Amino acid sequence: MSRILIVEDEAIIRSALRRLLERHDHGVSEAGSVAEARELDPQRFDLVISDLRLPGDPGTDLIGLAAPVPVLIMTSYASMRSAVEALKLGAVDYVAKPFDHDELLETVSRVLHQQATRQAAPPDVTDQGGQQQTMIGGCPAMQVVYSRIRKTAPADVTVLIQGESGTGKELVARALHQQSKRAAAPLICVNCAAIPETLIESELFGHEKGAFTGANAARTGLVEAADHGTLFLDEIGELPPDAQARLLRVLQEGEIRKIGSVETRHVNVRLIAATHRDLHALSKTGEFRLDLYYRLNVMQIDLPPLRDREDDILEIADSLLTKACRRHDREGLRLSRAARRVIRDFPWPGNVRELENALERGVILAESHLIHPDDLGLTPPPRPAPAPTAKVATLEDSLEGDEDPEDLSLEDYFQHFVLEHQDQMSETELAQKLGISRKCLWERRQRLGIPRKKGPRRNVG
């Protein structure tokens, strides 16, 4: 049961709101002012719902007092200005009074879900070398990944991990296995793109002696080797059609048959697949079986590219740098301020793998205790110049224009502003112009269904 604090000076509204929330299984406490709320310790709650105008201190003062607990602001003055000011100060969202009951309940449910997602801890993972490490990053997109890992790992269902090359798909697969009921059994990792097409069926399903030229002895396949454990198939989009049909049989019936054998064997395997390709699009062209795609996509985890994790990049870089220094016996090396700026602003088409390689170069080439931009060997792609006549309006400009703020909802303006300017502005610049944090920008994109502008497609291996 979630715990909600209502801060409202009008007893009738406060009582009605309490009854509404309690009918939907929320635990509710009440306060009539910021001072009363302070005595109840707002940080003990999961959510604070506060009126904007209260006797004494304004409701927005609770944003700092309750942090990191989210504060939802209620206001009878549903103008753009009051809503924007509340969001600028850190309110998670606002509702206008008189509020619609269903809309309020939906907002409360969404905010509580987001809060639970943010609190998902990065999982610990044991890598191939047996070293324990923690997944790095606290941006909203990675919080969703952590939450999905935590919920999906014990469920023992097939998982499809989507993400560009170098985003850490194998790390997620290891986390899923190590948090599952099969953790004591083997995890078998296979890169489908690295095995020749003529050999991949033999590698996966095994063969009998004499099944084909060169089969001088019987061989157990990797699917059978993963029995009672987990099989991770990386780049599954490269699997040839015959192997796809055999894999579908494993998922449907739990059966395998070695090449050259007439006998079938039962296996109990959890499958985790990963790809940087659009399997659904490939199924339309006949390159990937649609029935296999549906079997694979029971649960999906989408890994964000590094360029969409601006808040995490430097934290990841520092961790990778420490490991590179240890490998090359150059403890104490640091990134110069200029190098940190380059790393933060680089688009990273090769994602974390490219970042790791750049830092490795830096450690090897650095001649002093600092790594400089030239040591990293990064050449950023040219950026198109913005149109010279384009005028970027700020949120304040819109409020001072001829349009009546009462006639323009915050959602309408937000969507209009983002869609108009995201071609010329980064996410950081958009958030600054809107007067909100990058996290708030990302959350409102998700809520309103506004896609991010995609850059030119890159070929990823």
In short:
This protein is an alpha/beta fold and 461 residues long.
Overall description:
This protein is of the alpha/beta class. The protein is 41% helix and 13% strand. It is built from 20 helices and 16 strands. The protein has helices at 11-23, 34-39, 61-66, 80-88, 101-118, 140-152, 169-178, 200-205, 222-225, 241-253, 279-284, 290-296, 313-327, 337-345, 351-365, 373-376, 395-399, 410-421, 427-434, 438-448; strands at 3-7, 27-31, 47-51, 71-75, 93-96, 124-126, 132-134, 159-162, 187-191, 230-234, 255-256, 265-266, 270-275, 299-302, 334-335, 370-371. It has a five-stranded parallel β-sheet, sandwiched between helices. The chain has a five-stranded parallel β-sheet with strand order 9-10-13-8-14. The chain has a two-stranded antiparallel sheet with strand order 6-7. The longest helix has 18 residues, at 101-118. The radius of gyration is 27 Å and the shape is globular.
